[in-house]
């Protein structure tokens, strides 16, 4: 029998945290758990949620879960860093009152393990994307319902691992939800419905171009190791975030693919940027790719991140009879009437749908779609980086090497 010792700690961590230790711990809790399903029973008044990752998005998702139903309780929370956990504790205590537990707080290398192994029905996964595959696998093996932010990985091996765990969870009847919240934003849902119903004729191509500034940076502080600094600034570290195509553009790629009807991908090829920009580029990224689908449609996805750039965001579907603007939610330059009952924003509606699925609705299954959209972003990044055409089927090809004993991603071994 494997015995796991659970430690609650709210004092500053006295040891260094490594990516390897964090990932290794995730498989330990999966092996130790023998729970076939979440403890939550449909119709119960209480839904116990565990939060993994206490940054802004994680705390925001926890607050949205509490707001979604009076029976939701944040029963456990964990983060790599003690100070980030303390900040989350202050916010959740002040906002949620007795619906936030002060007893299930964990920090350090095994924080995710301990949250997943706590007495929770579901987990919110909001750590840097490089950790997502291992966390999804551990949560599924522990029988927890999952709400996972996107992207679900940073490379082909990681996305394959997440997809396999998702398939396992769906067979178990778990609710597996993605944080790709645009699919729950009512005006966009109405716009996509108009496209799929033929308002712009036959969809031909999609465009998703984002010109934005550089990611936020937390200044280095005394006592941080180089790895601490990287983890605290993960959004700008490609090996942790996946880079611009994954960390930022995956949502736009998902919206466009969804509006095209999610055709089967064929390949991605690097293309020149449509707009010439001042050089040299000292920091940031400039890249564009064309993703081809087997039905003849294609998606042009491009990202520019650089200091001082004027924001420019365009997302559209071009059809044989006109255009749908996915940012303005217009079709043929006319606003699409949205469901008057769908007043909640995308993030809130996405979380409310997940909570409903735990109470008495059918399980959410859209984490599988998130795996697909993440792999589309991986394919786009690979084409932009290598300059060659990258085939979709190659990304899903099993490795000839034996499967790893730990759910780690290939560049992080």
Structure description:
It contains 14 helices and 15 strands. It folds into two domains: 19-181 and 354-366, NAD(P)-binding Rossmann-like Domain (Rossmann fold); 183-353 and 379-394, Dihydrodipicolinate Reductase, domain 2, CATH 3.30.360.10. The strands form two sheets. It has a nine-stranded mixed β-sheet. Helices cover 36% and strands 19% of the residues. The two termini are 27 Å apart. The longest helix has 20 residues, at 367-386. The chain has helices at residues 19-32, 56-68, 82-96, 111-117, 132-141, 156-171, 186-196, 226-232, 238-241, 244-248, 250-259, 346-359, 367-386, 392-395, and strands spanning 47-52, 72-79, 105-107, 122-125, 145-148, 176-178, 203-212, 265-270, 285-293, 298-305, 312-319, 322-325, 330-331, 334-335, 390-391. α6 (156-171) packs antiparallel against α13 (367-386). Mean pLDDT is 85; it is low at 1-43 and 401-413. The protein is α/β, with parallel strands linked by helices and 413 residues long.
Blueprint (SSEs and pairs):
Layout: H1 19-32, E1 47-52, H2 56-68, E2 72-79, H3 82-96, E3 105-107, H4 111-117, E4 122-125, H5 132-141, E5 145-148, H6 156-171, E6 176-178, H7 186-196, E7 203-212, H8 226-232, H9 238-241, H10 244-248, H11 250-259, E8 265-270, E9 285-293, E10 298-305, E11 312-319, E12 322-325, E13 330-331, E14 334-335, H12 346-359, H13 367-386, E15 390-391, H14 392-395
Parallel strand pairs: 1-2, 1-4, 2-3, 4-5, 5-6, 7-10
Antiparallel strand pairs: 7-11, 8-9, 8-15, 9-10, 11-12, 12-13, 13-14
